[in-house]
# Entry
Amino acid sequence: MDNSRLSRQISFILELDRLKTILRQSLIGDGSRQENDAEHSWHVSVMALLLAEYAPPQADAWRAAQMLLFHDVVEIDAGDTFIHDDVGNASKAQREQAAADRLYALLPDDQRDHFRALWEEFEARDSATARFANSLDRLQPILNNVATQGRMWQKNRVTAPKLMGLVGRIAQGCPALGDYAHQLVEEAVRKGYLPAE
Amino acid sequence: MDNSRLSRQISFILELDRLKTILRQSLIGDGSRQENDAEHSWHVSVMALLLAEYAPPQADAWRAAQMLLFHDVVEIDAGDTFIHDDVGNASKAQREQAAADRLYALLPDDQRDHFRALWEEFEARDSATARFANSLDRLQPILNNVATQGRMWQKNRVTAPKLMGLVGRIAQGCPALGDYAHQLVEEAVRKGYLPAE
# Structure
């Protein structure tokens, strides 16, 4: 066993622990607190396995699950950028590239290249697998917002037209889940969880 | 799209959210609070991918990662049973079987059978993949305890001989990580994080 190789892998594993402290703009299902990136990453990865049958034929759901396990790692340095925060999103790509440079360099070179490429593929959405993974990443907060009566939507002044833009992205990566998300948003408006405009 | 099938899958996904509220007898890496089952499941799944090269030849690390994503689902009903709690462990199997009966029945029958079998395999440790997954499930709390100066070990009166029993289990599923865990425990004793007896 190459101890220095294992030490680098363990350093990365310990660094990843910090994802448990990065809070998102969604509540957990019982509404008691904000969700963190580690538990969100777990939730979307299990969704990839449970909803694999809806993935388009060219998408590999298990590879999407792997992608989703790592998709928020850069937020250890760059923080969570709320999807409806236009100012934060202007600098997001640059902050996240710097974070990826530092974080993935903790790994041995072959793994650095492999896991960074997996994240770059997710971000670029230039494969069916990456688009499917992105669909799940966008569907999960809608599920949790509906479960918590849209409290974080109201707090962050999210409206139905804004959310329908995201639903379009879900449909791009997974038409069946796009239809389902569309129904969820209409239901949320009907129930008063989400302002119609 | 079969809406009733998707509805069942989404019900299970929403129920899984409750794993975020089940607390374990380990702290997160910065020592600020107890870790929950969802973020623990995420951490051990990424470990399966990052440490795949140490898996014995018969073990499938990717399948171990899938197993680990779901390995604690039964704790939604059965709660977390601390590995050093002898009383709790006497009733653990029965409580967890009842939990599995209820929880996996939320899924469509084919998925109920598939995901329950994956969990049963993990619990029974009767495959190289299940033993590898169990090794990671036992290594991760040791890493987090060392990172937090053994505070939860001291609180729960865990000693080095008790922990060495677990290290033996890690070695059974993954000799290389067993060696590493052995070194970690010795280091923890040397640093005063863990009582020698």
